[in-house]
Amino acid sequence: LARPGGNITGLSFDVGPELNGKRLELLKEAVPGLSRVTLLVDPKAERASSMNELQAAAQALGVTLQRVEAGAAEDFDNAFSAIIHGRPDGLILVGSPLYSFHRARIAEFAAKNRLPSMYGLRGFVDAGGLMSYGPSLIDLFVRAATYVDKILKGAKPGNLPVEQPTKFELVINLKAAKALDLTIPQSVLLRADEVIQ
């Protein structure tokens, strides 16, 4: 990432696996009785380190994880049935571009089935999901402009490092919480970067 070479550079919103553990921790704080969480996983986008981090966090928090896979849009109906059958207390998505494209469908499923949900991108919360914790895409877009400026001034893209996110945001949808009859603890609300009313 420090010297990508060629004509490649930019900013990545793919961050280390530790964020998944943090997402589980925040969901547990928001839903204190949480004991079973389903992970919706795209097997094509899965990283072993993310799953290891989630397992470690789950063990520390006393939470049982259930895994359901969906690697294509046509897998969602079966995945949703499996999630309902597992009777979880909450849902976490393990990042996938596929899921971002279908965020409204996933958020609607979670709301309809009264599943407190945690996502990696705020777009899911804007679509009706409960909570997200992840990189600020707006910050990445602003930082991308500096790269465009440097390249237009003559810098070679391959000499510019690919940068990782530096700003992360916790977004909570209180309308979704109310629909779930869930009161988000003040300790979680105070840490939120944005609370959607």
List keywords for this structure.
single chain, 197 residues, alpha/beta, 9 helices, 43% helix
Strand/helix succession: HEHEHEHHEHEHEHHE
Strand content: 15-25%
Would you tell me the structural class of the helices and strands? alpha/beta
Number of strands: 7
Cα distance, first to last residue? 39 Å
- Overall geometry: globular
Helix content: 40-55%
Largest beta-sheet details: 7 strands, mixed
Unreliable stretches (pLDDT < 50, length at least 5) are none
Number of helices: 9
Tell me the strand order in the biggest sheet: 2-1-3-4-5-6-7
Average pLDDT number: 90
Rounded radius of gyration (Å): 18 Å
Could you explain how this protein is built, in words?
The chain is of the alpha/beta class and 197 residues long. 43% of the residues lie in helices and 17% in strands. The protein is built from nine helices and seven strands. Strand 1 (36-41), helix 2 and strand 2 (64-69) form a beta-alpha-beta unit. The chain starts with 17 loop residues before the first helix and ends with a strand.
